[in-house]
Write a structure and sequence with these properties.
Layout: H1 17-30, H2 36-46, H3 54-62, H4 67-81, H5 87-93, H6 97-106, H7 109-114, H8 121-131, H9 135-155
Helix pairs in contact: 1-2, 1-3, 1-4, 2-4, 3-5, 8-9
């Protein structure tokens, strides 16, 4: 269609705000919250005019098998950007206490501002391992990646 040409009406699908709240939080957590813009997006989504149904957010997050990853992002958005997240929603998604303590260290304001996990593969892997819901699967993944890296380096000439 060129300029001035009317477009035919198209059906457009989009996520419910509650599904978007879970999707954005999972995405940000998967990348270790290393872009503050993602946390700001969460804050905007939580503003009162959006009228999120936090009970549904919790339900959707629990349905992903990664509710703690949703907690990491929303907790950081609340702590660092004053996102209006109800404490009850965070409590319903919270990982064990020891992981909460680690997450708040990994995702402190200084570390997120410095994007320090992006500069350290070891730090990135430690965060992934320690914050994972099932450490065994992440540990196996890390060992497999390390083994493949060693094999690749042994095959290189020189």
């Amino acid at each position: 269609a060129g300029p001035g040409t009317p477009l035919r009406p198209r059906a457009v699908r989009w996520l419910r705000p509650e599904d978007e709240a879970v999707y954005l939080a999972l995405h940000a957590s998967n990348h270790a919250l290393q872009r503050l813009a993602w946390l700001f997006d969460l804050k905007l989504l939580a503003l009162p005019d959006t009228r999120l149904d936090w009970g549904m957010v919790v339900e959707r997050a629990r349905g992903t098998a990664f509710p703690q990853a949703v907690w990491y992002a929303w907790d950081a958005a609340r702590r660092l950007l004053a996102a209006p997240v109800p404490g009850e929603a965070l409590a319903a998604l919270a990982p064990p206490r020891w992981q909460q303590v680690l997450a708040r260290r990994f995702f402190s304001d200084a570390r997120l501002l410095g994007a320090s996990l992006l500069d350290s593969r070891a730090g990135w892997m430690a965060a992934k391992l320690l914050l994972a819901p099932r450490m065994g699967s992440v540990a196996r993944y890390g060992v497999r990646r390390a083994r493949n890296a060693v094999r690749a380096s042994l095959r290189r000439p020189g």
